[in-house]
Model the fold of this input.
Amino acid sequence: MTDAQETAADSPLRTTGGAPLDDGGSSAEGSVGSVDGAPTPLLEPREGIPPVIADEASLADVVAAFAAGSGPVAVDAERASGYRYGQRAYLVQLRREGAGTALIDPVACPDLSSLGAAIGDAEWDLHAATQDLPCLRDIGMRPAQLFDTELAGRLAGFPRVGLGAMVENVLGYVLEKGHSAVDWSTRPLPEPWLRYAALDVELLVDLRDALEKELDRQGKLEWAHEEFDAIASAPPAPPRKDPWRRTSGMHKVRRRRQMAVVRELWTARDQVAQRRDVSPGKVLGDSAIVEAALSLPPTVQALSALPGFGHRMGRRQLEQWQAAVDRARALPDSELPQPGQATTGPPPPRAWADKDPAAAARLSAARAAVTTLAETLSMPQENLITPDTVRRVCWEPPESIDAESVAAALTSHGARNWQVNQVTPILLPALASHA
Done:
């Protein structure tokens, strides 16, 4: 067992009762957020709710303030998922020592590259960074380095890693989380929402500092830095191929003509949603698309009788959906979509026993070894090594089953150095015993 494994075997930091994290504890007012051992509700930002920045002159003042600030910058963004088309940001929150908290309207100020430049090489502190980085990149903000408090919590072994749970367990404060799923495209934004948004970055740097010390105590800090660097340097994700195949309930659709109906309806819905700037689900539900695909209705009247195409839908809407169905019905067989998607990876594991029994045995042994090591290190298995990486190495192991070859195989599939160092020793016997 390595030093990191020995340390990780201890339970991770818990301070729900309000005990100081170390000498000094949180830098929030009152240091540690508890009274008589109970977590303290955090009801107001330290400097009150800042005004929303919605013009270039005010933005210039924020840029100057954050350029003059010091230390890491807490960053968060609010989207309107389920209400609007796409994943653009509708509010950006930042906090930095010496600059205070800023709430910025990226609809009124769509280019925040000057703010990104003012922050420069300072560390960004985010919670679940991969959720917010795409929409922040769209408005000109890209971190040079970051610290992800959610990922840090996973690596440190916390069972609950939502921001509210982490702030309560680590810092002893209770955040009000009732506005997380509201329509952030609303204007003007109600004051309770703005208070919630400001509080989301209020203690983010404090949480980061506490988690850094805990990761260091467990011998995992360098591992975390590798993960954070990988997130910060990752290129934007390419567009999904055939996104219509992800329609909920698609598993019911088996015939190619039915698949064509899903594709046509999905595409028509997406065009309408984009034009109206609303969530596609508000235009037409996935379940309605699947029902139409299974039924192949020949007329508008037949379509209107299906679930999801009820009496509330106007004749014009029904005609546009029927036109999509008709397009699919009229396609020649050569233009119908093929079942499934071409994949470059291994087949589904359930098929391994028939296709390659030795590979199935390797996978079983490797999964058991990864499970045991993840438990020893007190972290989720998927953070120790992705299941896809394990499957690929077990399906096509290196020609030579030695430490160098296995490490090279893991690296070629995107594993970080720390993951390679931890996982290579446990994969060797799993691969060698079923070569």
